[in-house]
Amino acid sequence: MNIWRRFIQLWQYFTLAWIVTLSSVCWPLVTNDLWWAGETKVEEYALTKLPVRCIEARGTFAVDYEMRDPAEPWNRDPYEGYDLACWYGEEQFKALWPEYKNASFNEISAARYWSLGWAKTTDRYILTKLAAFIVLGPPLIALAIGYLLRLAY
After folding, report:
1. What is the 3-state secondary structure (H, E, C) of the chain?
2. pTM over 0.90
């Protein structure tokens, strides 16, 4: 019984240290999630504009397209200095890329996001779930292993 109490005490200390440390590390994941950043900011571009790599851009800057960061915060890389894409309206895009003339906006948008290596998700909590798993998963696994060891002995 004494060993079990000691295990629980150690587990509590390590869990507290783990949660405090990794919460500060994982906080940017939570702030880049859709529920935190706000849908209106994301939707105003993600639902009306089409991104293209600027080296592949066609047309005239400020007339046919504009350069800006990804609409979704999770597609912005804080460690990369150049995240910009050239954003087109659907009409301008189809006029400059005739091969997409008969494609729907959603098909073109999915293809363009994929070509940029960006994720287009509707899950509002995808990064928050990942952060919660990173922060809470290992302490819960350690507790489960300790409990199973207790049952075994």
Report:
1. CHHHHHHHHHHHHHHHHHHHHHHHHHHHHHHCCHHHHCHHHHHHHHCCEEEECHHHCCCCECCCEEEECCCCHHHCCCCCCCCCEEEEEHHHHHHHCHHHCCCCHHHHHHHHHHHHCCCCCCCCCHHHHHHHHHHHHHHHHHHHHHHHHHHHC
2. no
